[in-house]
Amino acid sequence: MAQARNQPSYDFLAGSPSPQRPGGHQLRETLLRPRIPNPAQDSDGPKQHHNSSSGSNNEELRAQLNSLKYELESLKQERELTELRHEKELRDVQNKAEADFRRAQVSQHNRTHGAFRQSSLVST
Questions:
Q1: Helix (H) or strand (E) holding 11
Q2: Residue 67 resides in a domain
Q3: Which of 11, 37, 67, 111 is 20–30 Å from 4 (CA)?
Q4: Terminus-to-terminus CA distance in the chain, angstroms?
């Protein structure tokens, strides 16, 4: 009789009043019984726990996503900067090559013009 008074009168897992069973195995049976989802009861209870754990997972995923986005943007900027440096180096090398070519042309012109003057002076 003392066992009957100590047993709960409401089954929190099933969401209904506990049936009175003789033998005192009522609690063990409610824990072992598969839970049938009750939409009216599930509206606030267990979903909050699920939402809070999935919320923290979502926060972690958002943080990872944001850090990966930042890393991607940094890599894009580095790539653009590298491309700009290469283009500048290429322009510098082309300008130097053009300047060397002009100097070589001037030097060649001066040699041919000097040789022409020398031959004209010798012939006179």
A1: strand 10-11
A2: yes
A3: 37
A4: 148
**What pairs with residue 16 in β-bridges?**
11
Do 55 and 82 sit in the same domain of this protein? yes
Q: What is the 3-state secondary structure (H, E, C) of 87-116?
A: HHHHHHHHHHHHHHHHHHHHHHHHHHHHHH
Give the alpha-carbon dihedral of 83, 85, 86, 89, to 10 degrees: 160
Alpha-carbon separation of residue 77 from 65, 68, 89, 90 (angstroms): 18, 14, 18, 20
pLDDT in single tens digits along all 124 residues of the chain: 455 556 666 666 666 666 655 555 555 555 555 555 555 555 555 555 556 678 889 999 999 999 999 999 999 999 999 999 999 999 999 999 999 999 999 999 999 888 888 887 777 6
Are 34 and 50 in a shared domain? Answer: no
Query: Which residue range(s) make up the domain with 89?
Result: 44-124
C-alpha R_g of the chain: 45
